[in-house]
Specification:
It is built from 19 helices and eight strands. The strands form two sheets. Strands 4-6-8-3-5 form a five-stranded antiparallel β-sheet. Helix 8 crosses helix 9 (137-148), helix 8 runs parallel beside helix 13 and helix 10 runs antiparallel to helix 11 (174-189). It starts with a helix and ends with a helix. The radius of gyration is 28 Å and the shape is globular. With 423 residues, it is an alpha+beta fold.
Length: 423
């Protein structure tokens, strides 16, 4: 009966909304209490003992980094793995999103209009940030739009829970995840954000402009001087942090990210190797002009010719600031979207060039197949590893020249189909 009494007490605590019916037999409550007890037992049975052990074993590392026992216990008590982080961590997709689809979404009319509204609302703040850091306010605003749709979605994961899950379960980069986890704990301990408010992505990127904890530590800024670098609830702090990040990575004040251009007939596509750097004045001597017909404002600026979809899409001359944006996210599509969105916000038009949308990019397995076919036909590209590098681009160009095609070095489903027909 004492066991039954304890279960009855549990039931009363867990189900306070149920009135104790004195007229009913105590055995009815014993049955209810037993059911509740079984429910709790089931929950415990599904807990991950390995995760709990990881948290216990990680304490010496955190302690050595200056994390207090009070902070550690308050954060980790009752924590379980983030199931969504586990799901996304293990999700392997071979689908490669075409750059035109990416840009259609990233630089939508809705996002452009919202950016223009926020440019007015935060105009004075952005102006001060630009003066302080020397970084174009429109680029900062565009990154905010790209990262979280201007704060509309900053992620719904607790950053420390997500990072702990990754440090425990990720098959690779465990050292990286552990470092980020310690830094996140230090941010909470210093009072910059409450643990429960530390929201971000499943991979630990945080706040309005999605900083990893280590980037927050190195580059975040306290715009309003309140002693906190709050990228979660202070929009000025988040925007200033982004500007500081770009400044520290080499942003060139007063210069743009790049220009959309037109290439002349018979252009030597060997120059579009992603590395050749020339001044805008030198590029102009090859017959290159801006797509809007205007002159280059600073002919001495150095630029690289970039063809995101080969000869079948728009062409660009990218300046130093384009590659600074890529330090935020090392993807050509991302940096192009940020640059284009910043131009659209200040009244620029859509891209002039059209994408030939049938020239879809290849998945990794398709790229490996392409490499194998090129090797088989004598256009040596090295190992068929599914990665596009300089050797693969050289092999593609050699093949294209041998077939009278434009030698742009771009791997697409159209090119793969042609290779299969030739084999």
């Amino acid at each position: 009966m004492r066991t039954c009494a304890r279960r009855t007490a549990v039931a009363k605590r867990v189900l306070p909304f149920v009135t104790f019916l004195k007229s009913k037999s105590i055995y009815l409550w014993c049955a209810l209490a037993l059911a509740v007890s079984m429910m709790f037992s089931s929950t415990v049975a599904y807990a991950d003992p390995g995760f709990s052990k990881f948290i216990r074993d990680f304490w010496p590392t955190a302690k050595a980094a200056g994390i207090s026992a009070n902070t550690y216990n308050s954060v980790f008590t009752g924590m379980e793995p983030d199931d969504d982080t586990l799901r996304l961590m293990n999700k392997q997709s071979e689908f490669v999103k075409p750059i035109w689809d990416y840009l259609d979404s990233a630089v939508s009319d809705t996002r452009v209009e919202k950016g223009r509204e926020l440019l007015q609302e935060y105009g004075p703040v952005l102006q001060k940030i630009e003066a302080r850091y020397g970084v174009d306010r429109h680029a900062v605003l565009a990154i905010w739009g790209m990262e979280t749709n201007y704060g509309g979605y900053m992620g719904r994961h607790n950053v420390i829970q997500a990072l702990t899950t990754l440090a425990y379960a990720a098959p690779r980069r465990k050292k990286f995840w552990k470092k980020e986890l310690v830094t996140a704990l230090a941010i909470v301990q210093a009072g910059h954000v409450q643990f429960q408010d530390m929201e971000g992505s499943w991979a630990g990127a945080m706040g309005h402009t999605q900083f990893m904890p280590s980037s927050w530590k190195a580059y975040s800024a306290d715009y309003n001087g309140d002693g906190r670098r709050d990228i979660w609830t202070s929009i000025p702090d988040a925007l200033a942090s982004t500007a500081n990040y770009l400044k520290k990575h080499g942003w060139q004040t007063g210069k743009t990210w790049g220009y959309e251009i037109k290439l002349p007939a018979g252009f030597d596509y060997q120059l579009a190797d992603g590395d050749t750097t020339k001044t805008l004045g030198q590029w102009r001597k090859y017959g290159i002009t801006r797509s809007n017909g205007r002159d280059f404002p600073r002919p001495g600026d150095r630029a690289v010719l970039v063809l995101p979809a080969g000869a079948s899409g728009p062409a660009f001359l990218m300046l130093r600031n384009f590659y600074v944006i890529k330090r935020y996210n090392n993807a050509t599509a991302y940096a192009l979207a940020v640059g284009h969105l910043s131009d659209r916000i200040i009244g620029g038009g859509k891209l002039a060039g059209d994408w030939s949308r049938e020239h879809l990019p290849l998945s990794r397995s398709e790229t490996a197949e392409l490499q194998s076919l090129l090797n088989r036909r004598g256009f040596s590209v090295g190992a068929a590893d599914g990665k596009i590098g300089p050797a693969t681009r050289r092999g593609i160009r050699a093949y294209q020249r041998s077939r009278g095609m434009i030698p742009d070095g771009y791997a697409s489903v159209v090119l793969l189909a042609r290779l299969k027909m030739d084999s």
